[in-house]
Model the fold of this input.
Amino acid sequence: MQLTRFEDLNLSKEIHKAVRDMGFEEPTPIQLGAIPHLMMGKDVIGQAQTGTGKTAAFGIPILEKVDPSFKKPQALILCPTRELAIQVAEELTKLAKYKKGIKILPVYGGQSIQRQIKSLKAGVQIIIGTPGRVMDHMRRRTLRVETINYVVLDEADEMLDMGFREDMETILENTPMERQTALFSATMPKAILD
Ligand code: AMP
Done:
């Protein structure tokens, strides 16, 4: 059977309600392609540009899977720029409107690290960050990644172009092996496939 509607995707009533509030009528192709696999726990590689609905494609499954009663990092989304990190955090916050107890935090360079540390200490499940600042928090032990179950590499080609390869690899190496990973990229050069 061809999936075409949000009703076909086995989503919670809280997410359905948020999606309706946001004015989404039908899932976009990347959402139809990625959401069922991510909901089943599979890893996904998606080729998608900005504007295709990729944020909700990885964000909805994360919001469905995060445990609101467990106040530790569970999902880490890596983005190339602070603008994208903020934008992704805003979209996820809207999608999480009816999900109680889920905390979402963007962390990026240029913002006071003390403020971020305070928010991280208060208990955050979903962290959206630029690789440099995420590494900084890992070194300071203000972000412990051993409880992370979901990792998203958003705009992975941009992150490689910006020289974040080593940081991305270190971050991935430090998260649990059995984590679920999703990678989104506008292009699929060999470095991304590696
Ligand atoms: P993105 O590609 O994730 O940056 O999303 C681009 C824009 O499309 C954002 O403003 C989203 O809120 C919006 N969007 C995402 N999914 C849908 C959908 N299924 N229907 C309509 N708009 C959407």
Q: What stands out?
A: The chain is about 45% helix and 15% strand. The chain has a mean pLDDT of 96. The first helix runs from residue 13 to 21.
